[in-house]
Structure formats: structure tokens, C-alpha cells
Amino acid sequence: MGQYYLTCNLDKKEYLDPHAFDDGLKLMEFGCSRNGTMLALAVLLADGNGKGGGDLHSDHKIIGSWAGDRIVVAGDYADEDHWPEDVKGMNTYSTIRESGEDAGWRDVSLDVLKALMDDDYVRKDTMKQGAYWYVHYGEDNSFLRTLKQVRKGHKQASSTWRKVLKETKQAKENNERLGALLPEELSAEHHDPGWLVQRLGKQLSKIVDKLNSIVPEKQVSVEMVEKVLVVVGQEYLKGHKIAPKPRIKLQRRIMEVR
Question: 186 and 99 in one domain?
Fold first, then answer.
């Protein structure tokens, strides 16, 4: 079985739960993530944030609160013998999972996420990630529950969530329509059909929005959407390498829609 980890502060008895940042618990799952556990750790260890360009745009008190403390990425198979005397013989991961607050440990993931939401770039990127999960899978996972808690008391996060959720729902509808119109066998080099549909769906959404802005009194009909598909499909064929057979099928489908 794989090994699970928590990032822990031995001095303050605080920890980060990767699931709260939409990361897996395995080392390479959260170690390679974007805007996740490792960013949260960097924020906690930052000494001097806010004094230079490229810093996190937040003055939350959690930032830098771990600077100078003993930090360990604790695994559930950890070898405790090489640990300091005051924690030797204790499996930190197991202690937190089994006893948690009763053992004096506190999860600071929510506090760090609140700080991250103060930053425009991180907030929008994180909300997009959450909206994708919510719209496509509808899973009530730890990440979505944490986001929900942040949105309750964070005006900017709540506003961003509503906007990206609307955009994500629209993109999903576009993708479903394109999926019905494009041949199933269609595949771009190094990508599956789902990726292609998603790419085309994003382009289609932009073109449909443009059409609505030009002729605001008219609603874009199914026929209009299909005609837009012809343009998008032709442009895609021009700029991408597609295997001969799927290319021919896409060309035929474009002719049918015409």
C-alpha cells in the first residue's frame, strides 16, 4: 500500500491536511501539486511576506507563523527512532489521525486557505479548481467542504466562486454538445477525445459570447451553435496534427453540419 503523509509542526502541534487543498495524501501527490499543500507550507514558513514583489497579497496572521519551528512531513510508516527525544517513539501521523484534538493537535489548513484567498491570482485559480470538481463530479470531498467554509466569511471568495461556477457550468454544456457532434474516434496526437472536446468547448463558449454581444436581442440557437462548430473545427484542423482517419471524420462531420 502507499504511504500517507501530513505536514506537521512539532513545536506548535499544528498540521496541514493535503485533502483540504485538493491534494492526495501520498508524497508525490501533494509534493507536485499547484496552489496546494506545498504553497501552504511556504506561506507558513515565509519570514517577511509583504515586503517585496511576488509575495502573497494577504496580511493574515497565519502567514510566517511556522518560521523557525521544527517541521516534519510525517508518514504513517515513519521511523521514529531518529526523531528528537521529546517526540521519539511517537508516530505523528497516527497520533493525529487517531486522537487529533484530544492529543492537542490543530488543523490549520482552513486558516491558510483563507490567507490564500486574499490573493487575486490564487483565489481565482483555486475557485476554478473547486468549480470543476463540483460541476463534473459533484463530490462532497474535503477540498469542497473547506472552500465552502472559506466562502461563508470571505466576500471576494464568494463572488469569485459564483462567477467561475457559472463559467464552468456553461463550459460543461458546450462540451456535451460538442461531444454529441464530434465523432467518438476523434483524437489529437498525445490527447484523448475528451481533451479535444474540452478545448473546442472553451473556444465555442468565447465565440457564442461574442455572438450574443453583437446581437444582444437574439438568443443563440442550436443551429447557430452548430455553425460555430464548423468554424471552430476548421480552425482546429489548420493548427493541429490529427491522425488521418479522425481528420477525415471531422471534415465529414463539418460538411454534415453545414
Answer: no
**Rounded Cα distance, 258 and 254, in Å:** 6
Q: Are 233 and 254 in contact, with CB atoms under 8 Å apart? A: yes
Instruction: Give the pLDDT band of residue 195 (cuts 50, 70, 90).
Output: low
Which grid coordinates are listed for 189? Answer: 496526437
For residue 235, give every residue at least 6 positions away whose Cβ sits within 8 Å of its Cβ, in sequence order, or none. Answer: 203
Pairing of strands 5-9, 71-75: antiparallel
Phi-psi bin for 111: left (phi > 0), alpha (psi -120 to 50), beta?
alpha
> Is residue 165 included in any domain, yes or no?
no
Whether residue 148 is contained in a domain is answered as: no
What is the average pLDDT across 190-211? 63
Q: What string of DSSP letters covers 220-247?
A: PPHHHHHHHHHHHHHHHHHHS-B-HHHH
Q: Which domain holds residue 211?
A: 182-257
Cell (9 digits) for 216: 444582444
User: What per-residue confidence (pLDDT) applies to 243?
Assistant: 62
Confidence grade of residue 188 (pLDDT, cut at 50, 70, 90): very low
Residue 124 lies in a domain: no
pTM: 0.72
Give me the number of domains the chain comprises.
Answer: 2
Select from 83, 116, 149 the last residue of a domain. Answer: 116
Instruction: Point out the domain boundary residue: 78, 93, 116.
Output: 116
